[in-house]
Amino acid sequence: MITVVIPVFSSNFLEKAVNSVNKTSREFVSSIVIIMDDPSRRLPAIRSDIPIKTISNPVNLGAGPSRNIGVLFAGNEYISFLDADDEFLEGRKEYYESILKDNVNKCWCSDYKTSSERIVKSSTKKNLAEYLSNTNIGLSTITVRKEMFINYG
Length: 153
Prior knowledge:
Layout: E1 2-8, H1 14-25, E2 29-36, E3 52-56, H2 63-73, E4 78-81, E5 86-88, H3 92-102, E6 107-109, E7 112-114, E8 119-120, E9 124-126, H4 128-132, E10 142-145, H5 146-152
Parallel strand pairs: 1-2, 1-4, 2-3
Antiparallel strand pairs: 4-10, 5-7, 6-9, 6-10, 7-8
């Protein structure tokens, strides 16, 4: 199964992000970890068919360190990242099916939609080091084995 890690600074679009996980990924995602990166704000109550674990950083750490904290709290073999202002697209079921069927140590990339309704295309399978060394990436695209992510960084 898969955990979706969502770092949050502004929760304006968070409900849409979580709803997109519920709508597209319910069969494969067994938990969502939300990391609030602004200690002066509270997360809104969000309804979800998938259990949500929330974590609040004591200080603003930024999206990257918040993702790393989320990975530590993820209880599944695979991690998908989603920014709080992005959404998973339809077709996620087939994406997850291919990951679990292929079972290789790669970083899987998928398409997603931004809060401005722009579709970002990046469907591919890459080596994690190659993917992370590319400066033109959106982390809302990747799914990776938790162990591989922790070992890399």
